[in-house]
Write a structure and sequence with these properties.
Blueprint lengths: L1 H18 L4 E6 L3 H12 L6 E6 L12 H6 L11 H6 L3 E3 L4 E5 L4 E4 L4 E3 L2 E4 L3 E3 L12 E3 L3 H10 L5 E5 L3 H12 L3 E6 L11 H13 L2 E5 L3 E7 L2 E6 L4 E4 L1 E4 L3 E3 L2 H5 L10 E3 L10 E3 L4 E3 L7 H15 L13 E5 L2 E7 L6 E7 L2 E8 L2 E8 L5 H9 L6 H10 L16 E3 L4 E2 H9 L5 H8 L9 H9 L12 H20 L12 H10 L1 H18 L1 H7 L8 H23 L6 H25 L7 H18 L2 H14 L1
Parallel strand pairs: 1-2, 1-7, 2-3, 7-19, 9-16, 10-11, 10-16, 11-12, 18-20
Antiparallel strand pairs: 4-5, 5-6, 8-17, 13-14, 14-15, 21-22, 22-25, 23-24, 24-25, 26-27
Helix pairs in contact: 2-9, 15-19, 15-20, 16-17, 16-19, 17-19, 19-20, 20-21, 20-22
């Protein structure tokens, strides 16, 4: 009697199971930034109900931000660069295997074999294998103390080796090599960059732009050597001896090879997929390889004869592939080679046909280089070395091939400024706001319409502003123009305005008023006040208070460079920075009684008051940036900000001598 009932109970279950659609099995080989972007885009579409996704990564860590690998040297924590934890993959229904390599592909059976001997079946296979470091055939390249610069494991090995070391040589003056040199600088080593070509970043910069970049990094303490290559590495009692092609040699404690990368296409070659003559897995506009069920994205892919070494095109590939897998028709039509980078705090940008033919306009200063390529008097390409607040304008002008009049061309060569672009609200929907993720204004506007209210909301929704951060002001401006506000108003503007006025008034008082007079009697209240700038104990208190406040004010600069300090709105940080300057001035009044003193004291007072006076003008110019936004106002803001920084340089040295003098004499 029980058996028939059991069969009847099973029948509905079998019917339900048969009617339930089977998930398509996707295997992703590689767990880098592009692979993570692919998974992120799938998760946005809630595709875990449709796909069963398994990800294999050779490294021991889940996906991390390789673009900012240098930040790891400042804060070597597993969370510093993390893009997604193992829990993130699990919560989104993905199976993640770390420290796992795929050794072979059986295309007939649609199976892959991993490094542990396990077979995994797939319906679609995504190759996001990335690239591997290219190491030239240099004698002695396997010597102890020689490293490549690519992964977190490489970074850990370098950090461990660099303890108590003093010097480093980096082979390769491209983007990767300059990042490695900056990492060595962060570790306190004297770094030398050696580039075989006649200039740094030869793929992006011409000779003149390279010279400006060389001068900039030389001032930061990095020694560039161009036009030479390494031929031999020898181990000596004092470290390594590197011999160069010009018959010169140099001793070093550590050698880092950062001479470029090659597409990781070995798995594709073993599987007899079509690859390019110089490497790279050949794909079509649908990202398919020569096997329609196998796709390739990122640095391992060769599309229309081009391998893209930047993350932005890889993100575009990932987004197009997800759209196709989810039933869309989006394809990858290629990407330009434009880039906008921050190298050691120096902006280096190249847009459009930046090394192409055409009329070239150049504006050069000792610390910056700007060039335009014009074709039939229209923007076609451009190069920028050094900070410039019109970089986004330049990018838009090139993308839209805007016409440039003869008078505007002459003005650029004279002043370095290009014609003011349309207001951000008037930019076309296809205008690119974030170059790193290729996020358009139309996409961001749609997110705002869907409820995004802040730049942080837009970053979370689209990824814009999360790679280099240079487009964050434009994201904020887009959000600021919604609702009832007519224009974007930076946060902290009112306290910044008040602090600027207070600092300006105090500095004027220092310059216009004489030192406080001596008290006529010890029995007066004024005598008790004058003890602040006469008695040693009180002067020590006010002096160290100023020093401490100055250190706190430096956090504004540190926030730009240290990842874990990047919380809160930058406008409020700027307001706090200015307020700390005012407190320093108040402490200075108590410390000196408005007396500039003589000799060293006079120099220190002049430097400090000048620092705060120019800082006051900088604060006021920034507080008024929404009212005055023409080219001349931008130049004024840039000038006073740079002058403010210039006044700071001698301050620590003078302060150190002042403290030493106070205790020694």
């Amino acid at each position: 009697m029980a058996r028939p009932r059991l069969r009847v109970a099973i029948i509905p279950t079998l019917i339900a199971s048969a009617s339930k659609p089977k998930k398509r099995r996707i295997i992703v080989v590689g767990n880098g930034m592009v692979s993570h972007r692919f998974c992120h885009e799938l998760a946005k579409r809630k595709a875990n109900k449709t796909f069963d996704v398994t990800v294999f990564g050779e490294e021991s860590s889940p996906a991390y931000d390789r673009v900012h690998l240098t930040d790891y040297f400042k804060n070597p924590s597993s969370h510093t660069l993390s893009l997604g934890s193992s829990d993130w993959y699990s919560k989104n229904g993905y199976t993640l295997h770390v420290s796992a390599r795929i050794d072979s592909i059986d295309r007939e059976k649609k199976q892959v074999l991993d490094s542990k001997g396990n077979l995994h079946s797939y319906d679609e296979l995504i190759l996001a294998c990335g690239s591997y470091p290219f190491v030239p055939p240099i004698e002695g390249k396997e010597s102890p103390g020689v490293f490549v610069y690519r992964t977190l494991q490489d970074a850990d090995a370098i950090i461990s080796h660099c303890k108590s070391k003093k010097s480093a040589i980096v082979l390769g003056g491209g983007l990767l090599g300059l990042e490695a040199a900056n990492a060595m600088r962060e570790l306190g080593l004297h770094a030398t960059v050696v580039e075989f070509a006649n200039g740094l970043m030869p793929r992006q910069l011409n000779q003149d732009a390279s010279l400006v970049l060389e001068q900039q990094i030389r001032e930061l303490g990095v020694n560039p050597l161009v036009g030479k290559g390494a031929q031999k590495i020898e181990t000596t009692d004092s470290g390594l001896l590197v011999s160069f092609s010009d018959e010169s040699s140099q001793h070093t404690d550590i050698l880092i090879i950062a001479t470029g990368v090659r597409p990781a296409d070995e798995l594709a070659r073993k599987s007899e997929l079509q690859v390019g003559a110089r490497g790279g897995i050949i794909i079509n506009d649908q990202l398919q390889t020569s096997d329609p069920s196998i796709y390739a994205i990122g640095e391992c892919a060769l599309h229309r004869g081009q391998i893209y070494g930047f993350v932005a095109p890889g993100y575009q590939m990932a987004e197009a592939l997800v759209d196709q897998l989810c039933g869309g028709s989006k394809t990858f039509q290629g990407s330009d080679l434009s880039c906008r980078l921050k190298l050691m705090g120096i902006e280096v940008s190249a847009f459009g046909d930046y090394l192409g033919e055409g009329r070239t306009l150049v504006h050069r200063t000792p610390t910056s280089y700007r060039s335009l390529i014009l074709k039939r008097d229209c923007f076609a390409g451009g190069t920028v070395v050094g900070d410039w607040d019109q970089t986004h304008q330049l990018q838009l002008s090139i993308r839209e091939e805007r016409f440039m009049t003869p008078s505007e061309q002459a003005a650029f060569e004279r002043s370095g400024e290009i014609p003011a672009a349309d207001a951000l609200a008037d930019w076309p929907a296809n205008a690119i706001i974030c170059n790193c993720t290729q996020t358009s204004k139309g996409t961001l506007s749609a997110c705002i319409s869907s409820g995004c209210k802040t730049a942080a909301d837009l970053s979370a929704a689209t990824g814009a502003g999360e790679v280099c951060g240079s487009c964050r002001p434009l994201l904020a401006q887009l959000c600021g123009e919604t609702g009832d506000e007519a224009a974007y108003k930076p946060k902290g503007r009112k306290p910044l305005w008040i602090a600027g006025l207070a600092a300006l008034a105090t500095c004027i008082a220092f310059l216009a008023l004489s030192a406080f007079p001596e008290p006529e009697s010890v029995q007066t209240a004024y005598y008790q006040i004058s003890r602040l700038w006469h008695e040693s104990l009180y002067k020590q208190i006010s002096g160290y208070t100023m020093a401490g406040l100055s250190l706190l004010a430096l956090l504004l600069s540190a926030r730009k460079r240290i990842r874990f300090l990047r919380f809160g709105n930058f406008g409020w940080w700027r307001a706090v920075h200015s307020s700390l300057g005012v407190l320093c001035l108040i402490a200075l009044v108590a410390h000196t009684g408005l007396d500039f003193g003589n000799n060293l004291n006079l120099w220190l007072m002049t430097c400090f008051v000048g620092l705060n006076l120019v800082g006051a003008f900088a604060a006021l110019s920034v507080a008024m940036e929404d009212r005055f936004s023409g080219p001349w106002s931008r130049r004024i803001r840039s000038f006073v900000t740079k002058t403010h920084i210039l006044f700071f340089w001698p301050y620590p040295v003078l302060l150190g001598f002042h403290i030493y003098k106070a205790y020694a004499y």
